[in-house]
Design brief:
- It is built from 23 helices and 13 strands.
- Helix 3 packs across helix 4.
- It is globular and about 90 Å long.
- A hairpin with a 2-residue loop joins strand 11 and strand 12.
- The strands form three sheets. It has an eight-stranded mixed β-sheet, sandwiched between helices.
- It folds into two domains: 210 residues, no CATH class; 295 residues, Alkaline Phosphatase, subunit A, CATH 3.40.720.
- 48% of the residues lie in helices and 10% in strands.
- With 609 residues, it is an alpha/beta fold.
């Protein structure tokens, strides 16, 4: 009789835990489906039953691990449900701000409380801090009191902890070959690699989240080999005697201007007067001016940096590789970049980002890319801010750059500036804005004021550069649109317009612009190529490969290809173009995943090994 009672109790306990797992899954799906109960019901009990119960199993394993680790079932259940609540809310917040779901990589931000403080409204940030502290204390009390459990329960707890941990470790290898859980999902899942927003809707939040766990950056092309790479190197590489003689190396300044874009480009939005007035004047005097195709809407600065500094394109990676700065570069011992290329030509390189050094592991990444110096927020501690804006003004960044340019003018310098002035939040940023918007939107008014300050600052910067004896080239571009436009505005546009920012390339030596490039759309991977052409610097084999690609494909990201003057959802190429595209793909694989044969053969500059 006693055994039957115990068996019944165990069954009830497991039933409650399973119920909580199902409830957690339903809640996550509810958040994913924009609070639609009908869609949640249809997803879990009609359309995707098999995937739904596989996801329940994964959440059940997480709950068992929590119970085993904390040692108190009640406290573990509270912790588990709180964790699920937080994940669901974070997913909703990100979907509204950036039109993409929560990724495993996003949990990295929990270490960046300063960034979260700037990102979230103050009341929400305080609630988050208090709840984190409360859950920490809950777990701590649970773990401490669990030591007094009888040895039989301790043994059972350890066994459950080992089993659940091993199982979750296997789950974490979801994208590895022959993973049985992935294969179980594959029976019914229709993955959508080109759009994670659609992917999460298609397969559910849990499955979509698992799909974005660690993955090999790129699949190996079928014809990848040392011989193939050697053939590509020989095709694009030129001998030393063909390289131009450098007479005057210009200073090069790459400026990634946070969220710099033209709000008047969007239907249903009017900002007056024009906050980009000073910017347009510089554009008229620039060699190149146009639109930059950004990978993301509302965020993803580090990915645009990656493309601009390396010349590689995010769309060629597996969809699950969402942030190369944190998921790829820290694992590399060597990685070619525009920085290392310029170092081979005698340049000193300086990166300036007036914010937290640990964001996107920038300090580590900049070292890996070859920068000699990195200035962060501590270098601007005495700078006066604009209004209630918590960030360092663009003008201060340009002023610091000018001071450094005047130091030892005989040495050419490369600067990579990543500004913060126009970063969100936009609410209450300025007491009064000089700009009016239709429809009335206080956040947009403050953002427009940011744009005006940025335009004025870069115009003044260009004016000061013209006074220097040494020549200069400035590449100025926005990384993405701000995440402030309401849904009704976003719905009026094809997604292409929500991914276009502004850019120009200005040279103190060139006064006449080239008309062919005044209305173009470019990917950031080409900026450094155009800069080297303009400066008459020696081109590497990789530069010539990019030249060939640029000749017919000036801009592309995942599911979005700009050629022949318009956007296409798919890439349609002739045989010659397809070969160039495959060469580019092979080189990117060789450097990021392969044996780096091309690097050893001097394809990115420097001597052959």
């Amino acid at each position: 009789m006693s055994q039957n009672v115990k068996g019944t109790q165990v069954f009830k306990i497991l039933l409650v835990d399973l119920f909580l797992s199902v409830l957690a899954n339903l809640y996550l799906q509810w958040c994913q489906n924009n609070y639609s109960f009908s869609l949640v019901y249809l997803f879990g009990f009609n359309w995707h039953v098999e995937k739904f119960w596989l996801s329940n199993l994964v959440l059940f394993l997480v709950l068992v691990a929590c119970i085993s680790w904390i040692g108190n079932r009640a406290k573990a259940r509270v912790f588990f449900m709180w964790m699920i609540l937080l994940v669901g809310l974070a997913n909703v917040y990100k979907m509204k701000g950036r039109m993409e779901p929560l990724y495993p990589e996003d949990f990295y931000y929990l270490k960046e409380l300063t960034f979260l403080k700037d990102l979230l409204p103050t009341p929400l940030f305080i609630i988050l801090l208090v709840s984190l502290l409360a859950m920490f204390l809950l777990v701590l009390v649970g773990v401490i009191t669990s030591f007094s459990l009888p040895w039989r329960k301790q043994l059972l707890r350890v066994m459950c902890l080992i089993l659940s941990s091993v199982s979750l470790c296997y789950v974490s290898h979801f994208n590895y070959p022959h993973n049985q859980l992935k294969q179980a999902y594959d029976r019914t899942a229709k993955w959508v690699p080109y759009s994670q927003k659609m992917n999460y809707y298609n397969v559910g939040f849990v499955a979509g989240f698992l799909y974005n766990l660690e993955v090999i950056p790129m699949e190996q092309p079928k014809n990848y080999s040392e011989k193939t790479i050697h053939q590509i190197v020989n095709k694009y590489q030129k001998s030393e005697k063909d390289k131009p003689v450098i007479t005057d190396k210009p200073n090069i300044i790459l400026v990634l201007s946070e969220s710099f874009s033209n709000p008047n480009r969007l239907k249903g939005i009017t900002v007056s007067p024009d906050p980009l007035k000073d910017y347009w004047q510089i554009g008229k005097d620039s060699v190149y001016q146009g639109s930059m195709l950004s990978e993301n809407y509302g965020g993803g600065t580090a990915n645009i940096e990656f493309e601009a500094l390396t010349g590689f394109n995010m769309s060629l990676f597996n969809a699950q590789l969402t942030t190369p700065y944190t998921m790829l570069l820290p694992k590399q011992t060597r990685f070619p970049s525009f920085v290392s290329d310029m170092k081979n030509l005698g340049y000193t390189s300086i990166a300036i980002h007036p914010y937290n050094t640990s964001m996107y592991k920038r300090r580590e990444v900049y070292t890996r890319l070859g920068f000699d110096e990195f200035l962060e927020e501590s270098s601007f501690s005495t700078v006066e801010k604009l209004g209630n804006n918590p960030y360092v003004p663009d003008q201060a960044v340009f002023s610091k750059t000018l001071d450094m340019l005047k130091e030892d003018p005989s040495v050419p310098k490369l600067f990579h500036l990543v500004t913060m002035q126009s970063h969100l939040p936009y609410q209450n940023k300025y007491l009064q804005s000089d700009y009016q918007t239709q429809p009335v939107n206080k956040k947009l008014e403050n953002y427009s004021q940011d744009l005006a300050y940025s335009s004025q600052a870069v115009a003044q910067f260009i004016e000061e550069l013209n006074k220097l004896k040494q020549p200069s080239i400035v590449v100025y571009y926005g990384d993405h649109l701000p995440s402030l436009y309401p849904e009704e505005i976003r719905k009026q546009h094809k997604s292409d317009k929500l991914h276009e920012t502004e850019f120009f390339i200005w040279s103190s030596k060139e006064a006449k612009a080239y008309p062919d490039y005044q209305t173009t759309v470019l990917s950031p991977q080409y900026f450094t190529l155009l800069t080297k052409e303009l400066a008459n610097l020696p081109l590497t084999g990789f530069d010539r490969l990019r030249q060939a690609l640029l000749s017919y494909l000036p801009a592309f990201e995942r599911g979005r290809y700009y050629y022949e003057g318009k956007y296409h959802k798919e890439l349609s190429l002739n045989n010659k173009q397809q070969q160039i595209y495959q060469d580019y793909q092979l080189i990117q694989y060789d450097i990021t995943v392969g044996e780096q044969y091309s690097l050893k053969q001097g394809f990115f500059g420097g001597k052959k090994e």
